[in-house]
Structures are given as C-alpha cells and as structure tokens.
Design a protein that fits this description.
Layout lengths: L5 H11 L3 E5 L3 H14 L3 E6 H6 L4 H13 L5 E8 L2 H9 L4 E4 L6 H17 L3 E6 L17 H11 L3 E4 L16 H10 L4 E3 L7 H10 L1 E6 L1 H17 L6 H24 L1
C-alpha cells in the first residue's frame, strides 16, 4: 500500500472523533514494531522521526528517513511519515527533500512574537512545497528543562497563533510532559475542550507516554486528535533487552535480544493504537 500522508490520517481521525497515534522512530526495529502493530490492529499510524533521532544517526536525515519510508510503503494499512520537533531549518528542508510530507516545526522556546514570526515564515514555505505543518504553543514539560511543566496553552492565544501562522495542527500544553517513565499525568480536559472550540485546526498531545489509558480516551473525547508517543516504546524495548541479557548473560548476537525488544514495542504500540482510536 502506498504510504499515506499525516494530513490524510489526522483529518480523517478528526472528522470521525477518533485519535490517531504517532510513534517516534529511533531504530529500524521501532519502525518495524510500530508498523506490525498497525497491521495487527488494522489501524492507521504515523511514524515520526525527531531531530534528536537524526542526531543519533550522525546528523544524516536521509538514511533513517529512507529506511522508515520503505517500511511505511510496504505496510498493508495506511502509514504516514512525519518529522517531529524540528528546530534546524536545514534539517527540515533536507527531510522534505527526502520525501517527508509533514513536519512539526518547534519554535516554542522562543518568545510568543518570535514564535509567530518563525512559524509563519516556515509554514508559508512549507505550504508552497505541499507540506503539512504542526507547531507548538505553550510549553510541554520535559526536554532537559527547556519547558516548564506547569505552563498551559491559552485558548485565545491559540486562536490568534493559528490565524497568524496558518499552521495545519497545533500541539498544546494541557498537563502532559515529555519523557515520563510513569503514567501518572493528569490532563486538563476542560482546557482541551476550550482549545478545541477556539481553533479550527486539529490539536496534538505531546508527552503521551506518561498519560494513563483513560486520560488518553478522555483527551480524545474532549478534542485531541494526534497523540504523540515515544518513551513508552523505549521502556518496552529496554525492558525486553534487560530481561534477555539477564537470562542469557553470555549472549552476543544482537538478534537474540532485538527480536523480543521489537515484539515488546509492537505489543505496546498495538495497545495504545486501540486506546486512542476509540
């Protein structure tokens, strides 16, 4: 099946009142595990590659994008490919040149006026090149202290931001935090509903790994559409590797522990796909 676009999957989910899961890819095993989960559940999925993942691969975007795109194109269900948390404009352009059709441009650490200017400029360029753009307003926790977990996105400011920048989707701060390893986050569902009523673009929840299942379901019901998940897969991956090496301390063949790690990620992804899709 040809790969889908993020725009197609997000807009379809929004129209039906469902969520669509977007999982972060770091290794080929991540892409394979997520896609296998999507095929198992029969649900669409978004594979996303972050700026940090590109840095992990030596700063070269093209190889990891090409490998992930091939996995997406070979899937039997709709799979989209997205760039996540991109601040480097050169990387953004390289990713689009490599065939990515959507990007999350992250200027959220800038002052509001600077965020508007930078995001509006990138969005205009991206739209000229047929690319769908997600941006962030407010501050989602985590990321080495770059954001303050207590900050929330103001609905009036969100409406002004989307109108001024022309973005296609908006990531908002409603109580989640990046890189959480325990699922203890409580979301402000009343704020989500107010944001949904204030803007005419889909809302995106970052830091979803730390959000319990029922909170995710309520977030989708209140108006969240694209649900970003990363750390949950890494917890499953690392736990499976630890278990295998603990039971087989002399193991040296990485396939022996990468297979259970990939399977563990796939099981986690399948569960979360079902949760957010309703």
């Amino acid at each position: 099946m040809p790969a889908a676009t993020t725009a197609e999957l997000v807009l379809a989910a929004r129209a039906s009142g469902r969520g669509v899961a977007a999982f972060n890819v770091i290794t080929l095993e991540h892409a394979e595990a997520i896609t296998a989960a999507a095929e198992q559940t029969g649900l669409p999925v978004i594979l996303q590659i972050s700026e940090n993942a590109v840095k992990f691969h030596g700063g070269r975007a093209e190889p990891v994008i090409a490998a992930t795109a091939l996995v997406a194109r070979s899937a039997s269900v709709p799979v989209a490919l997205h760039l996540d948390h991109i601040q480097d404009e050169e990387l953004l352009r390289a990713g689009i040149a490599a065939g990515v059709t959507s990007v999350m441009f992250d200027a959220s650490t800038l002052r509001y006026e600077e965020n508007v200017r930078a995001t509006g400029r990138i969005t205009a360029w991206a739209h000229d090149n047929g690319v769908w753009v997600e941006a962030e307003l407010g501050e989602v926790g985590g990321k080495d202290g770059a954001h303050a977990p207590g900050v929330r996105t103001d609905p009036d400011q969100a409406a002004a931001f989307t109108a001024a920048t022309g973005v296609d989707a908006l990531a908002v701060a409603v109580g989640s935090s990046h890189a959480m390893t325990e699922r203890t986050a409580g979301l402000d569902h009343e704020l989500i509903a107010r944001l949904r009523g204030a803007v005419d673009v889909p809302l995106v929840l970052h830091g979803s790994s730390g959000v319990p299942d029922n909170e995710l379901r309520l977030a989708v019901a209140a108006g969240m559409t694209k649900i970003n998940i990363g750390t949950a897969l890494n917890i499953a991956f690392t736990g499976a590797v630890r278990d295998h090496l603990g039971a087989h301390p002399s193991a040296v063949d990485p396939r022996r522990y990468l297979r259970p790690a990939r399977d563990a990620m796939s099981a986690t992804a399948a569960h979360l796909l079902r949760v957010v899709s309703g």
